[in-house]
Design a protein that fits this description.
- The chain has 190 residues and is mainly alpha-helical.
- It contains 5 helices and no strands.
- It is 55% helix and 0% strand.
- The C terminus is likely disordered.
Length: 190
């Protein structure tokens, strides 16, 4: 069985290997030295060609072609790195007790859905600024209840991720956020 994202043709495998080697090499000190040497040779040959338009065209064309190709190599490397980081983060989220599984594969959500989750965590950060114990973790509703009641601590507040009663899960994208005391909205965040 072949990997779904692995190139199936010999040409595809060859291009993948070549782009990997070129990407690694282009980030090396030798690649930088070669670029500096190329510019130095070009500058030294300037007087030989009387700094002509052709002399300038050579460096302009060369750098344009190299830049064009490097954009694709850099994007390929960035895509691979981004996917690897996302997979590692997904594994951590999946393995942590009390972590929200809604965050797994979050990079595939729409911008609007990501904005909903971002606002949720922003609210938690704002509430946490007023918390005396920086290790406490709680939901928005619990934090609002404590701050309205003027309590410094709450029995359900967590000193770690393992307290199931105090875990923080973002709202389901598209769901309305529950506001304590507002009976017109359903509690969709817990």
């Amino acid at each position: 069985m072949t990997h779904p994202h692995r190139p199936r043709s010999n040409l595809g495998r060859t291009l993948e290997r070549a782009s990997g080697h070129i990407t690694r090499w282009s980030g090396s000190s030798w690649a930088f030295a070669l670029a500096v040497l190329t510019i130095a040779v070009w500058l030294v040959t300037g007087p030989l060609f009387a700094f002509s338009d052709t002399w300038q065209l050579v460096i302009n064309t060369g750098t344009t072609v190299v830049t064009f190709l490097m954009v694709f190599l850099i994007q390929r490397a960035q895509n691979k790195e981004s996917l690897a980081v996302q997979l590692k983060l997904n594994e951590i989220v999946a393995a942590l007790e009390g972590a929200s599984n809604r965050l797994i594969d979050i990079e595939n959500l729409s911008e609007a859905e990501l904005d909903v989750i971002h606002r949720h965590y922003h609210k938690l950060a704002e509430i946490a600024k007023h918390e005396s114990d920086i290790r406490r973790s709680h939901s928005i509703e619990e934090a609002r209840h404590r701050s309205r009641a003027g309590h410094k601590s709450h029995p359900r507040a967590s000193h770690g991720l393992h307290d199931a009663g105090a875990r923080c899960e973002p709202p389901t994208p598209g769901a309305k956020e529950h506001v304590p005391g507002d009976s017109s909205r359903a509690d969709s965040t817990q």
